[in-house]
Structures are given as structure tokens and as C-alpha cells.
Amino acid sequence: MKVSARNLIKGKVKKVEIGAVNAEVTIEIAPGVELTSIITKPSAENLGIKEGGDAYALIKSSDVMIAID
Questions:
Q1: CATH number for the domain that contains residue 31
Q2: Model pTM greater than 0.90?
């Protein structure tokens, strides 16, 4: 797999919730560290995403904001 995104994080699929239009996919990237993404339902089906399987999170963003309270 070759991609242009610089931020590529491998993990295990912890949870997949398929809705009518979208799918919420949670990947555990380190023990106790999770990353969740919303993708389209067809994309989740085409990728064959299954709980327990390997997956990559590709993060492409020009801005990352940080806030404190």
C-alpha cells in the first residue's frame, strides 16, 4: 500500500457500528488508546472492515486545534 498521507497509524479494529448511511469505526492504536472515524456504509462494506482485524488510520489535515478548559 502506498499513500501520500504522512500520518499513517496501524491498529486493530475494536468496534464497527453500521448505520443506515454511515459506519463508525473504532481502532485501538495502542493499549487503551482509540481512534474513531465516521466513514460511509458502502466504504466500510467495500473494505470488509471486521472487529479484530487490522486497519490503518490515515490522517490528512492542514490544521490540528488544541483547547483547554
A1: 2.40.50.100
A2: no
